Queue: 3 jobs
Job 1
Amino acid sequence: MRAAVLEVQKMRRLRVAPMCAVMVAAVTALTCAGLMSDSARAGFGDPAAQPWETLLLSYVLVSAMTSPLLVAVLASRQVDVEHQGRGWMLSQVAGLSPGRLCRAKAAVLGAVLAALVAVQTSLVVAAGLAAGITVPLQAGIWVRYAVCLFLVDLALLCLHIWLAARVDNQLVGMGIGLLGSFCGVFSLLMPPALARALPWGYYAVVSPVAMGEDALRVITPGYGWLTVFLLVVAALFGAACHRFDRTEG
C-alpha cells in the first residue's frame, strides 16, 4: 500500500491524468468520425446496415493503433523518474525493493488503464446513441471487448515496465511502442496463427467482429489464447521482478 501511494504521488507530478484525458478524447474522436457521414447516418435505423458492428470495428482498429503507444508512454514516464533521481537506490533504503516497486507501478498504472478503457468505451457508445443509432445495442459484446482490451493493455504494460526498468534509455521502449502500434493494426489482417505469435497481435485475438465477404461478422474472440498469453506474461513479469530484486539487492 505504501508503494502504491508513492506511485500515485509520482503520477500527479508527471501529469498522467491530463495525458490520459487527451488520449481518451483522441480515441473517441477517431472512432466516431465515421458517424458524421451521410451514408452512415442513413443506416442508423437499419439492422442490416450493422451500425453498431461498424462502430465497434472502428473502435477495435483505433484501439489496436493507439493502445501500444499509450502503454509504452505510461510505463516509460513512470519508470524513468527512478533512473533520473536515483529512485531505485532511495526506494531500497526506504525498504522497497526494485521488483516490488515495479509491481506497484503495474498495479497503479493498471488501475489507470481500467478507468481509461471504461471511460472511452462508454463515450464511444454514448456518441453512437447521440448520433442517432436506433438499432438495439448489444451491450454484452461491448463490455466483454472492453474487459479483454484492458487485459491486453495490462499485459503489455507489465512487459514495458520491465523493459523501462532494465534499459535506461527510454527511447527504446517508446520505439517498441511505436512499432507495436503498427503491428497492432496489421495484426487485424494477419493470419490468426501469426497474430497469436506477437504480443500486439492479441488486439486482433480479442476482436469480437471481423470482416466477412458481404458484411461484418460477430465472432467469438480467442479467450483461450488470451488466457494463455496472460498467464505467460504474468509468469515472466513475476520472474523478472524476482530477478530484479536479487540483481539490485
Job 2
Amino acid sequence: MTQEYKGIIFDMDGVLVDSEEFYYQRRKAFLKEYDLSIEQIPLPLFIGADMRSLWETILEVNDTIYDEAFLNEKYHQYKAEHPIDYSQLIDPDAKRVLQFFKRKGYRIGLASSSTLEVIQEVLKEGQLTSYFDVVVSGTQFKKSKPAPEIYEYTAEELGLDPKNCLAIEDSEKGIRSARDAGTTVWAIKDTRFGMDQQLADQKIDTLSDVCKKLQKTEKIG
C-alpha cells in the first residue's frame, strides 16, 4: 500500500528558484565590507537558512566590533541595493509541476525561510501565485528551519495532518524541519553545496521528477 498524500508543501529557494548561490555570494560580499569572513563556516549551514540563524555563528568565528543588530540593519540595506533577478532563476518546470498537482486535486503549500516580501516577488515573477493554497514565511516564527514549526503550521493551514503531506526540499535545514514535523520528505539532489541529505525519504534529480515519481507510486497503490 502506497502512502496517500493529500498535500504537497514546497520549499522555495533551491527548489522553485535557483537562488542559493546568489544569496551565498551576496552575503559573502556584504560581510567582506566589514572585514568579516565566512570561509571557515561550512557552506551547507548557509543553504536554506535565514540570516537570523547565522549571525551568532558568523560573530563567533570573527573578531569584530560590530554587533548583530547593526549588521542586520546594514545587510537589509545591502540587499535592497543588490537585488536578485528571480525571473532568470525560476525553475522552467515550476509552473507545469504546480499545474499538475492542482489538476490532481492536491492542496499546495509553500514553506520558505525567506521573507514574505521575497516570496511574493518570486511567485509573481514566475506567475505561480495562484497555485498555492497557503504561503508561509519562516519570519513568522521565532525560529525558522530546521525547527519543525513552519511545516507543522503550513500543514495545519492546509487543513491536513503533516503525515498526509509530502515536502519537497533541498537543504539540510529544510529536510530536518519537514521530517521532524512528520511529513514525508523528497529532496532535490544537491550537486553543488555538499549537503547531507540522508534524512530525506527519497532523492530526486529534478523538480519535474516529483510528478513522475508520484504518478508511479499512485499506480502501484
Job 3
Amino acid sequence: MEPILIYGFPLGSSMGLVAALEWLRQPYRLCRVDMLGEMREPSYARINPRHETPAFVTDQGRVLTENMAIASWLAARDTERRISFDPLSPQADRMRQLMAYVNTGFTAAFSPLWAALEMQTPNPAMQSALRQWGRDNVVRRHDRLEELVGDAPFLLGDHPTLADGLLIGVARWLDFHAVADRDRWPKLSALRARLEADPAVIYATALESGESSPAGSGACTGHVALAEVIERYGTPRP
C-alpha cells in the first residue's frame, strides 16, 4: 500500500511534508484534517492521542506521529537522495541539525502566540503577555536561523530537502501572527521566496486551501477520508 500522510489545515506545519513527498516522487496518499474540528474529536485519539497533526500511516500500516519521526522514515527510503543525503555524510548531519532546530526552538517560539489566539475563555491581560512573549521568542529564533542559513539557494544546497520542507510549513506563521516584516532577515526571506515559488510547495498550499484539483507531480494517488483511516489504522477502542 502507499503510505498516507494525515495533514492539517489551516496553516498546519504538515504542509511542508506534503511538499517533501512531492519532491520525493514516490507514490503516496493524503488525508486532509480540519485541525479546528475533526482533529479535536475523541475518535482522532485513535490516530494520535495528543490530537495533533501530522500523522503518517506507513506502507506497513503502522501509524507514526511527530515531524522528525516522519522525516526520518522518508529519509530512510530516499534511495535516490532527492530530499536527503547518505546518512553517514556531513551533509546528513547538517540536515538533521537544521531539522532539529526548526522542529524544536523555532516552532516552539510560536506556541505563546497560538495559545493567545486559541484561548477558549478570553483573558486580555494574559493574551497580551503571551503575544509579547511569543513575538520576542520568534524574533530571537529568526535571528539565530538567519545566522545558520548559508549562501546556497536552499538550506543545504541547490535543491530543497526535508529541512526545507519542515521550515516552510512553519515559517509562514511569522506573517500570520504579524510578528515582524520578513525582510528583517534577508537570507531567510530570500529562501522563503524560493520555496514559495517551488511547484511542490504551491501544490501543497493549494491542497491545504481546499482546491480540488491542483497540478502536482503525480506521486499523490488520492485522498482518503479520515473516518476510513481511523477505522483501518487507528488504535482499537478499549
